[in-house]
């Protein structure tokens, strides 16, 4: 028998040989050739910058190849360059900090001794205006604390930094001593104060040092929203880099995520902090120069937006009292409902992952028989929900999951230990129209009625809810001088019921507020304001496009001035690229209208209505703050609590009188008047939970009082 011969491929032996060839090739590649090779790869803009930065750093001898790459005779790879780039950026940052300290201007003062502080205070004794800023450990105004004061003497052109709580071996003054010395200046209303994002600084001074800032004059952050509401960033460093041509790295670029207390070199700290005061002053002067070209905008800014900074600080400081036990029960209940919905939907859709758009979209297309552009809730699914119960269930699942994940599950951690309350955080100009928005982890207006019961009235208090009755409808009627709407408002009739009565030939008395006829009439009215197309309107109402067109035409015939006004807004924005809001108080800039874009034509009328509603809300909140302060001066503890949609919430004594209620209502109805139509405000009292409202007459009877 012939011997068996086993043939094998020598793959194991080939590996070292291949690697040896690679090493040989790598050892023959010069660094210049390596850079040339990497540059020839498919690189985006960031990659190109990375390659250039690392190459220059190597050529300047600041860095070298990684030790293991050299030892292994490896070719320079993109991955190695990425790692080296981290080092290069750190070196660059250190160089920038050293350069800042070395080249710090002579009018930037580092104050470390009592004598130097005395000298500086003697200078600001003669000042009529100061720029102020606080450097802190973080951005939470309740949990973080001040580590240094920035004060700029405007007339003297001196910009000082007074460190008090840095982690350093260098000399710094005692925090309480400095606060005591500066308090008279902060609290002197005769000295005008300038800041960027002043609300944050005011809150830190109050919460950490019990300093009540007075004399706030100019805040460069809201000022910039007056000049450009489309600005991508309102961060100070970004604004001065862009508009003043003063290159300024952001805090994160210089110090990362560390608090300012970790900056141990106080000269570096001063170079950074004092510059804040310096550039804030320069930015204010730049903004004033441009605002002076628009006197009506400047007047509105100074009379409404500036006082509103302090109004918001006061409102945020009140905070909500949370029933933690109820919140936990509600969270468990909501979590169970979400899981039940998920299981039901998963089974109905054949076991797919309903959280996967890629898996869900084909199933929804199969259900509807339509090719869906996406599964976007607002654009695609909401219009389909009335026809398809499954889609309605899916949207509820998504909404509940978001509510739970974003708010309900996080409520306990959002309550501040220092106050025992949950404090909202607002952006005064969160929308381009000037409307407020919530920031941070809590947004009261996203809580459904059942979840609102988590919020309770403090002991001995009630929550008073005061709404702007049909705020945007009244504003639209006034701006358009639409007599049909104005007459309905004057006569105390619901304008949407009045429209529905004509559109469907039904007596007004037979149309309820919850009727489909009223809903359709209101949607048709809003279609003029929002620029909603007939097809979209039909989808919203579950009617055909033809029916939507006919309804809109019928309503338009009753509101000729409104139709003319919205058409005029479109003509104006096409010609000018913006529309005016209020009494020429601010602009809504829609520059794409000048390019013939269609979207601005849909936005312009809504911008005017929503924008004026925002102005009315701000003016009213300012006046409410003043009225509540007067009540507190009389020993009555009233405090602004929140703004939610078109409603203001006030924390009031449980024995609130009818006279005090009337004061609040007068503020709501008389602070900002509209032409041709009165404001209205309904009052609701929440005696225990925010979700359980009672009318005033019921409230008085329940506490054993009489109704006058």
UniProtKB/TrEMBL annotation:
Reactions catalysed: DNA(n) + a 2'-deoxyribonucleoside 5'-triphosphate = DNA(n+1) + diphosphate
Domain spans labelled DNA-directed DNA polymerase family A palm: 450-656
Swiss-Prot/TrEMBL GO biological process terms: DNA-templated DNA replication; double-strand break repair
One annotated GO molecular function: 3'-5' exonuclease activity
Domain of life of the organism encoding this protein: Bacteria
E.C. numbers: 2.7.7.7
Keyword Nucleotidyltransferase annotated: yes
UniProt keyword annotations, A-Z: DNA replication, DNA-binding, DNA-directed DNA polymerase, Nucleotidyltransferase, Transferase
InterPro entries: 3'-5'_exonuclease_dom, DNA-dir_DNA_pol_A_CS, DNA-dir_DNA_pol_A_palm_dom, DNA/RNA_pol_sf, DNA_polymerase_A, RNaseH-like_sf, RNaseH_sf
Boundaries of every 3'-5' exonuclease domain copy: 111-292
Residue ranges the record marks as coiled coil: none
Enzyme class: transferase
Pfam families associated with the record: DNA_pol_A (PF00476), DNA_pol_A_exo1 (PF01612)
Family of the protein in this entry: Belongs to the DNA polymerase type-A family.
PANTHER family: DNA POLYMERASE I, DNA POLYMERASE NU
Protein known as: DNA polymerase I
Originating species: Listeria booriae
Upper lineage: Bacteria, Bacillati, Bacillota, Bacilli, Bacillales
């Amino acid at each position: 028998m012939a011997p068996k011969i086993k043939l094998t491929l020598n793959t194991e032996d080939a590996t070292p040989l291949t690697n040896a060839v690679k090493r040989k090739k790598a050892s023959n590649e010069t660094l210049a050739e390596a850079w040339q090779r990497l540059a020839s790869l498919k690189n985006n803009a960031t990659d190109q910058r990375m390659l250039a930065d690392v190459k220059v750093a190597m050529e300047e001898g600041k860095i070298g190849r990684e030790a293991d790459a050299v030892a292994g005779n490896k070719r320079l790879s993109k991955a190695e360059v990425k790692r080296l780039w981290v080092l290069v950026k750190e070196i660059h940052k250190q160089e920038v900090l050293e350069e800042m300290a070395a080249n710090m201007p002579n009018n930037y003062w580092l104050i470390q001794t009592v004598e130097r502080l005395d000298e500086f205070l003697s200078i600001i004794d003669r000042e009529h205006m100061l720029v102020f800023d606080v450097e802190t450990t973080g951005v939470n105004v309740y949990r973080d604390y001040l580590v240094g004061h920035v004060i700029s003497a405007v007339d003297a052109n001196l910009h000082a930094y007074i460190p008090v709580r840095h982690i350093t071996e260098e000399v710094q003054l005692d925090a309480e001593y400095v606060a005591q010395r500066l308090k008279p200046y902060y609290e002197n209303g005769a000295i005008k104060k300038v800041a960027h994002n002043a609300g944050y600084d005011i809150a830190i001074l109050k919460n950490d040092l019990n300093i009540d800032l007075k004399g706030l004059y100019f805040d460069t952050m809201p000022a910039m929203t007056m000049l450009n509401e489309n600005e991508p960033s309102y961060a100070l460093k970004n604004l001065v880099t862009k508009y003043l041509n003063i290159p300024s790295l952001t805090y994160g670029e210089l110090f990362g995520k560390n608090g300012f207390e970790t900056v141990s070199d106080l000269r570096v700290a001063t170079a950074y902090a004092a510059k804040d005061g310096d550039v804030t002053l320069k930015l204010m002067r730049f903004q004033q120069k441009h605002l002076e070209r628009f006197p009506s905008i400047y007047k509105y800014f100074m009379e409404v937006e500036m006082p509103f900074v302090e109004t918001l600080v006061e409102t945020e400081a009140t905070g909500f009292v949370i029933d933690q036990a109820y919140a936990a029960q509600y969270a468990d209940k909501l979590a169970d409902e979400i899981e039940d919905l998920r299981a039901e939907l998963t089974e109905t859709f054949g076991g797919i992952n309903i959280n996967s758009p890629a898996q869900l979209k084909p199933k929804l297309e199969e259900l509807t028989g339509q090719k869906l552009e996406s599964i976007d809730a607002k654009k695609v699914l909401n219009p389909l929900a009335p026809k398809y119960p499954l889609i309605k269930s899916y949207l509820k699942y998504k909404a509940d999951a978001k509510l739970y994940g974003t708010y309900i599950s996080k409520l306990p951690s959002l309550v501040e230990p220092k106050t025992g309350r949950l404090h909202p955080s607002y952006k005064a100009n969160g929308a381009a129209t000037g409307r407020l928005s919530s920031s941070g982890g809590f947004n009261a207006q996203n809580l459904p009625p059942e979840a609102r019961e988590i919020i309770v009235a403090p002991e001995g208090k009630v929550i008073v809810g005061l709404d702007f009755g049909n705020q945007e409808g009244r504003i639209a009627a006034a701006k358009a001088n639409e007599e049909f709407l104005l007459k309905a408002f004057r006569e105390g009739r619901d304008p949407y019921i009045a429209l529905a009565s004509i559109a469907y030939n039904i007596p007004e008395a037979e149309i309820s507020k919850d009727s489909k006829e009223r809903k359709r009439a209101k949607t048709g009215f809003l279609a003029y304001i929002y620029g909603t197309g007939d097809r979209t309107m039909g989808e919203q109402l579950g009617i055909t496009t033809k029916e939507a067109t006919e309804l809109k035409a019928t309503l338009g015939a009753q509101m000729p001035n409104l139709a003319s006004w919205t058409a005029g807004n479109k003509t104006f924005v096409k010609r000018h690229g913006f529309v005016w809001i209020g009494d020429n108080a601010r602009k809504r800039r829609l520059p794409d209208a000048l390019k013939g874009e269609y979207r601005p034509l849909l936005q312009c009328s809504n911008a005017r209505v929503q924008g004026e509603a925002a102005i009315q809300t701000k003016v009213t909140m300012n006046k409410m703050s003043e009225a509540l302060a007067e009540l507190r001066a009389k020993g009555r503890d009233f405090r602004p609590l929140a703004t939610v949609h078109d409603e203001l919430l006030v924390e009031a004594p449980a024995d609130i009188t009818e006279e005090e209620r009337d004061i609040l209502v007068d503020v709501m109805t008389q602070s900002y008047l509209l032409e041709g139509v009165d404001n209205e405000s309904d009052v609701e009292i929440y005696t225990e939970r925010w979700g359980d409202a009672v009318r005033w007459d019921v409230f008085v009877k329940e506490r054993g009082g009489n109704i006058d």
